[in-house]
Amino acid sequence: MHRMERHVSHTNKRVGTTQVARSYVSRWLALLAALCMLAPLGGCGFFTSDTKDTPSPVQSASTGPVSIVATLNQWGSLAERIGGDDVKVTSILSSTNVDAHDFEPTSKDLNQLSKANVVLVNGAGYDNWATKWIPSNASTISAAETVGAIDGDNPHLWFSNEARSSVARELFDTLCRLRPKDKSNFEKNYDAWKTSEKKLENTMKTFRKEHSDLTYAATETIAAYLMSDMGFKDETPKGYLQAVQNDSEPAPSDLKSFQTLLKDREVKLLVINPQQESSTTDQIVDAASTGSDPIPVLKVTEQMPQDQKDLTGWISSLVKQTNDLINSEEDAE
Q1: DSSP 29-51
Q2: For the domain that residue 296 is a member of, what is the CATH number?
Q3: Which residues are in coiled coils (predicted)?
Q4: Which residue in 94, 192, 241, 262 could disulfide with 288, CB within 3.0 to 4.6 Å?
Q5: By residue range, what is the domain housing residue 160?
């Protein structure tokens, strides 16, 4: 990972007398000493953004558990899997009752970030609120950067097998660098995680083989990566999808196209985000539910539900739900 570092340039000036030079140096030494007393980070380090309300120092990663702060609980759970007993993970967003797009960190959240040895963010514009508070001497892992995603791309990267694997590898490499003496523990944890993720991959592969012509529509793009990994084709009307991506209300004609798509049973599954329900999504769900042959509805939240303790386990449960819904839909045909 590459990290921007703050560089301070110094200008040397020639003075006319030895006395003036000594006075000049003394003043700067006094100022430097004062700054070090006020600096929030050990070794006179500074935050990457300017702030006067500075939190407490970052603890060394050489002793005690490595402190990891994740912006999202799904990524935090992955950090716990890789780090095991050698890490202490704090997840800032950990409730399905919170809208991640409108989230504002509290002073407690910022204080937790200030003490992190490792900060794990999603990136791709999803959690920009965190980046300006990352300590300058903390290691930063961005899920988006591991797969080349940028602002404007679908930010729901935790639903992607590629992103999960890339972040897990980055966590393993970072922890081994920070705590080489515990490398064998990290290797054991990483191998165990890869086994469970491989099992999930195989389950999705079997699902793709057993079902053909898989189609779905969604009220938003939250599960697009998951649906793609499972072999589904997105048939959401383009006009509606564009409106959602622009955070605007769909035009009446686009909503009607969506409703017609569902009433004519042109897709096998509808995906909704219960965290973003509205009168528009209610109309869409109603269209899927009408008639004697309703389209099954899969509810997918942005944050990992509290009854799920592990990212791979959560994705596995969604795959199982999807499989059950599709099987029941096909049995009814």
Answers
A1: HHHHHHHHHH-SBGGGB-BSS--
A2: 3.40.50.1980
A3: none
A4: 262
A5: 66-202
